[in-house]
């Protein structure tokens, strides 16, 4: 045993010596290449003296990187994550300047801008050399992983090797639909997934709810309830707020409501970790979780996940270099797309190249590193979201070459996590899943020349932009509104005499969630009925339902209950929601569409008018109400069909090969799998106790009380005045955004 320790120590000393020697040679080479970087004084020195100076500089830089860098990164945790990634070069260059000052006799000097370049090259070369040495020595690599895992496990008081039941890692491939995964495997883009399908895993398709987006799906998956989440963004009349799923304050409130509804902290409440998600899932270990971004306590700060990754300067430089390369890749791909004349196409300028690079490089690297750390620490359950594909597919298309390249890189990340599982202190079962897919198609504005908001305003007889007014759709909507107004003149005279003519009120609020539109009238309390909408805006519903870019509407009727309105030849068909059976206007949207519409109709915050775009079953196209050529958020096509890729050692998601329907059912499946791994019966993780003693992992309500708050009735506006319009929660400003719907 003593001989083994001496051999290990000797190997470590050899690796340090080799890295130091390579770094010294790199420093000498850079001094000869760069004009503003020198390792000897102006009056000249011998080659030997210059080499000694380079060795001093390389050694000092290595020590500073190991000792000072983690402290510097921790000090910058309050800096936004994107800015922190860009500061990496500056911080590394500063350490090099300090290292040169520590050289005896002051033999080294560099201009600040040159120091940034030298430091980046030095870190990259040292990292590559160290990695190469570790790869060549498999035994040393395994021993190092084992030591790390043992130390972390002892600190946590975890079980010894072989004593723990299997753990579970859930990797969410954001936006990757079932059909996209199958095609990627067939095309050889994802060899790791292909190998699993051949040997150890099963693939299952599941159906989303009507709101097919990360906010609704991940809330249901992690917390067991996505009740009252009608879209990615929606207006709540009782509070006057616009809720947006990827804003910290909204995410915290949605999580609070879900926990109150289920009485359970979440899927990950027993020794779990949540990485890169919108919600915590009840986990103790959090990194890059949006719903706790606003917290100020040090232990749960969302950005703490960056410290674990960027505390290694080699990681920081490698990710920063990859970030810059990804920005260049996006610019090049965008230019080539324009040259080829690709259709459909959407704008990819402005800050988008940097947003894409953050999602595909920085967030991926940090999340994967956090998952690796969780596995080496032996955590019971880990849920992590990889958002890269979703972001690229929105702007390049879900079946584009750009998106295919991202799938290749995701597969490599999955392969790395699978390799780490071989060195973890417990067996891990890795489950891949997605929260939704994406449906292709030109945006609504690109196809018809005006936005959904323009169409609504035209149908209400309100002013629209000159560009939108010149389109055929805008002209037809204005004509319909004009004719409806003339046809209502006789009624208006009687209404004026009785004092019943409605006031104009504030403009309608039109919000988009992919190809799902939500229209609300803020001056009408509760959910406005069809009759009231027709009384105020006689042409609006006919204009919307008759438009070729719209599939159907959901609106409440005071006489007939909620109804679906859709185009039917030259007219409009009206079907009661209670009697929907998947035929008629919903027939092309697939099985389960009627149930999804009925469920959303029951939500307290369903919009006055819910609008779903057209869907062409032959091509799979939809029209997003946002500037996207790959979209999700409503019904229609691949967006509604994500996947579950689970080990054969776990039970089938649904007996006899059925498909889970909705995110809440997927939550039940994942919870059952966790119980199977632990050898325990299926049941709640951590039920919440008395409301006076809330679970500390539940984000507090507005007043710090996790109990349901009675929503105040909308205040009546004084006569002649309109009630206040919507306000966005100001607490969400400055927070990290996912995450791209």
TrEMBL record:
Top-level taxonomic group: Bacteria
InterPro entries referenced in this protein's UniProt entry, alphabetically: Alkaline_phosphatase_core_sf (IPR017850), Phage_holin_4_2 (IPR007165), Phosphodiest/P_Trfase (IPR002591)
Chain spans, region Disordered: 681-741
Biased segments, Pro residues type: 697-711
Keywords: Membrane, Transmembrane, Transmembrane helix
Transmembrane segments: 12-34, 54-72, 79-103
Protein name: Phage holin family protein
Organism: Streptomyces marianii
Lineage, top ranks: Bacteria, Bacillati, Actinomycetota, Actinomycetes, Kitasatosporales
């Amino acid at each position: 045993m003593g001989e083994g320790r001496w051999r290990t120590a000797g190997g470590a000393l050899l690796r340090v010596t080799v890295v130091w020697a390579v770094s010294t040679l790199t420093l000498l080479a850079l001094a000869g290449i760069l004009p503003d970087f020198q390792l000897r004084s102006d009056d000249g020195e011998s080659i030997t003296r210059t080499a000694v100076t380079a060795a001093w500089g390389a050694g000092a830089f290595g020590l500073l990187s190991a000792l000072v860098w983690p402290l510097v990164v921790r000090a910058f945790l309050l800096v936004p994550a994107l800015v922190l990634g860009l500061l990496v070069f500056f911080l590394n260059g500063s350490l090099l300047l300090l290292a040169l000052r520590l050289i005896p006799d002051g033999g080294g000097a560099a201009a600040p801008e040159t120091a940034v370049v030298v430091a980046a090259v030095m870190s990259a070369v040292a990292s590559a050399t160290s990695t190469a040495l570790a790869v060549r020595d498999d035994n040393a690599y395994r021993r190092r992983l084992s030591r790390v895992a043992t130390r972390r496990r002892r600190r946590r008081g975890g079980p010894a090797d072989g004593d723990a039941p299997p753990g579970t890692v859930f990797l969410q491939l954001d936006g990757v639909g079932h059909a996209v995964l199958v095609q990627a495997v067939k095309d050889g883009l994802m060899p790791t997934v292909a190998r699993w399908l051949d040997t150890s895993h099963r693939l299952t398709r599941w159906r989303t709810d009507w709101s097919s987006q990360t906010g609704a799906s991940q809330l249901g998956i992690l917390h067991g309830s996505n009740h009252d989440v009608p879209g990615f963004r929606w207006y709540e009349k009782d509070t006057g707020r616009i809720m947006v799923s990827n804003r910290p304050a909204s995410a915290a409130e949605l999580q609070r409501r879900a926990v109150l509804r289920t009485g359970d902290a979440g899927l990950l409440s027993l020794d779990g970790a949540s990485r890169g998600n919108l919600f915590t899932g009840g986990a103790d270990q959090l990194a890059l979780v949006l719903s706790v971004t606003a917290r100020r306590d040090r232990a749960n700060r969302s950005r703490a996940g960056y410290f674990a990754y960027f505390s290694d300067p080699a990681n920081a430089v490698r990710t920063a270099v990859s970030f810059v390369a990804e920005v260049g890749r996006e610019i090049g791909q965008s230019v080539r797309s324009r040259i080829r004349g690709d259709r459909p196409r959407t704008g990819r300028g402005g800050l988008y190249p940097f947003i894409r690079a953050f999602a595909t490089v920085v967030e991926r690297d940090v999340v994967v590193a956090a998952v690796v750390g969780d596995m080496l620490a032996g955590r019971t359950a880990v849920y992590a979201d990889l958002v890269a594909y979703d972001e690229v597919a929105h702007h390049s298309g879900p079946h584009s070459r750009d998106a295919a390249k991202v799938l290749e890189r995701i597969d490599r990340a999955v392969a790395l996590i699978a390799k780490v599982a071989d060195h973890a202190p417990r067996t891990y079962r890795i489950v891949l899943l997605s929260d939704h897919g994406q449906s292709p198609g030109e945006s609504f504005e690109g196809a018809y020349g005006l936005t959904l908001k323009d169409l609504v305003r035209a149908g209400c007889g309100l002013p629209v932009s000159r560009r939108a007014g010149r389109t055929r759709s805008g002209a037809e909507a204005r004509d319909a509104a004009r004719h409806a107004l003339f046809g209502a003149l006789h009624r208006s005279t009687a209404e004026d005499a009785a004092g019943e003519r409605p006031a104009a009120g504030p403009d309608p609020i039109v919000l988009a969630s992919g190809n799902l539109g939500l229209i609300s009238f803020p001056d009408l309390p509760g959910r406005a009925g069809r009759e009231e909408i027709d009384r105020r805006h006689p042409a609006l519903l006919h204009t919307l339902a008759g438009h070729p870019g719209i599939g159907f509407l959901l609106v409440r009727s005071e006489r007939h209950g909620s109804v679906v309105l859709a185009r039917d030849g030259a007219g409009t068909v009206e079907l009661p929601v209670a009697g929907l059976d998947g035929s008629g206007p919903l027939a092309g949207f697939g099985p389960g569409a009627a149930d999804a519409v009925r469920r959303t109709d029951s939500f307290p915050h369903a919009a006055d008018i819910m609008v779903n775009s057209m869907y062409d079953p032959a091509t799979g196209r939809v029209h997003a109400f946002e500037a996207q050529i790959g979209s999700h958020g409503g019904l229609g096509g691949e967006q509604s069909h994500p996947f579950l890729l689970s080990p054969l050692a776990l039970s089938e998601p649904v007996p006899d090969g059925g498909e889970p329907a909705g995110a809440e059912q997927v939550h039940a499946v994942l919870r059952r799998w966790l119980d199977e791994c632990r050898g325990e019966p299926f049941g709640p993780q951590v039920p919440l106790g008395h409301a006076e003693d809330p679970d500390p992992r539940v984000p507090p309500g507005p007043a710090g009380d996790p109990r349901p708050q009675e929503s105040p009735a909308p205040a009546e506006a004084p006569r002649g005045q309109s009630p206040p319009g919507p306000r966005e929660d100001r607490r969400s400003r400055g927070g990290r955004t996912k995450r791209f719907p």
